[in-house]
Design a protein that fits this description.
heterodimer, B: about 90 residues, 4 helices, flat
């Protein structure tokens, strides 16, 4: 039983590592900030989730599971914050490849309202 | 050595090197912010993989701290980056 759990945990770690690798390849291959952001969020959420499940299967203790739950929840709460801020700033910066957009819902709100910072 | 461990190590190493290359070549500061975020996530994943492979729980608090404060770097960069960067920065 323990050997099976260890093997499953290794498989999950391998999946997380491959997600990190795919994010890195996406960072190099995609052409502007927002598409690279799309690649970057894969290991941030799914990769870390898989690896946390792998840790729980490998250590098999409830305190560790409780700790990992907090880690995953914090990561799920903070990853969209950074992605949102960077995506918004990329749009205003002009680092988005605009001819490739099908729908541009932000077109009329291009101007930053005064006092909004960024 | 276990071939699966080898595959895991190689995947992490190649991912970190490719991400570092994106940080080096840019082209804009936001690309570097995204790439450094990914590098930080890879550090978390490597710490977690170490715990899962070697059966210890020593670096769990590090994982929590990185998850909690790692986001502020990207937010600060996105907040204070220059308005017109045009990708040549």
């Amino acid at each position: 039983m323990n050997a099976v759990l260890d093997a499953v945990s290794l498989l999950l770690v391998l999946a997380g590592a491959l997600l990190c690798l795919s994010a890195a390849i996406g960072l190099l291959r995609f052409r502007d900030v927002t598409t690279r952001l799309h690649a970057a969020t894969k290991p941030q959420v799914l990769g870390l989730l898989l690896i946390c499940v792998a840790i729980a299967l490998s250590l098999r203790s409830w305190p560790v599971v409780a700790f990992l739950t907090v880690v995953v929840l914090v990561q799920l709460a903070t990853a969209p914050l950074a992605a949102h801020m960077i995506g918004r700033q990329a749009y205003r910066n002009g680092t988005v490849d605009e001819p490739s957009l099908y729908v541009d819902e932000l077109a009329e709100s291009r101007e930053t309202p005064p006092g909004a910072g960024g | 050595m276990n071939p699966m461990l080898m595959a895991i190590y190689v995947a992490f190493a190649v991912a970190a090197l490719l991400t570092l290359w994106r940080i080096v070549i840019g082209p804009s500061i936001l690309d570097r912010a995204v790439a450094s975020d990914v590098l930080l996530t890879e550090v978390m994943c490597v710490l977690g993989a170490d715990m899962a492979i070697n059966h210890h729980a020593d670096t769990l608090p590090v994982l929590l701290i990185i998850a909690a404060v790692g986001v502020f770097g990207s937010i600060a960069i996105a907040r204070y980056v220059a308005r017109r960067d045009k990708g040549d920065g």
